[in-house]
Design goal:
174 residues, three-stranded antiparallel beta sheet, 1 helix
Length: 174
């Protein structure tokens, strides 16, 4: 069963409907749109786009990761983790998880792509949130664990959270 989703970057709007991802761009050429036109994705269950880059990644119903767009940014370092349950990306780095393990790739200037080893979460991984210079994980027991840059307190997550089902990260917040 395929979902429906919309995502927007600085220069593109993409829609996932019935497994097919379609994008339109604000200017051309646009690697995100051009590569998708040349190599259509028709079995996507979920996708995400880099906030200010021409890069996207999707997961199909088998948990296989596909990334496309401007390869100069970080796509060639995509992980081999499979099956993937979730992918998230921001400007220059991305992470995937399979419910137990996490792999990140891309810019690591602030340690945002290198999870402290080992990442020990009491429960099963539910969500990964990738910010500009930091990354956070959520498990099924409402535990949140973050690493990377904390210059604007983006890693400071309250410890008394209950019933958290999702997390989001942005340029300098979680």
């Amino acid at each position: 069963d395929y979902g429906t989703q919309i995502a927007i970057t600085h220069n593109a709007l993409c829609v996932l409907t019935a497994g097919v991802i379609e994008c339109i761009a604000g200017f051309s050429p646009n690697p995100l749109v051009d590569q998708l036109v040349a190599n259509p994705i028709s079995d996507a269950n979920y996708f995400t786009l880099a906030e200010r880059r021409d890069v996207g990644c999707s997961i199909n119903y088998r948990g296989e990761l596909t990334c496309w767009g401007d390869d100069s940014l970080f796509l060639s370092g995509a992980p081999s983790l499979s099956p993937v349950q979730q992918v998230d990306m921001f400007n220059n780095h991305a992470c995937v998880h399979d419910g137990e393990s996490i792999e990140c790739w891309g810019d690591n200037s602030y340690g945002q792509s290198t999870p402290p080893t080992p990442v020990v979460m009491p429960g099963k991984l539910l969500d990964v949130a990738v910010g500009d210079r930091h990354t956070c994980l959520l498990d099924d027991q409402s535990n949140v664990y973050c690493w990377g840059d904390s210059s604007q307190m983006q890693l400071d997550v309250p410890y008394d959270l209950d019933d958290v089902i999702s997390i989001e990260a942005g340029e300098a917040h979680t």
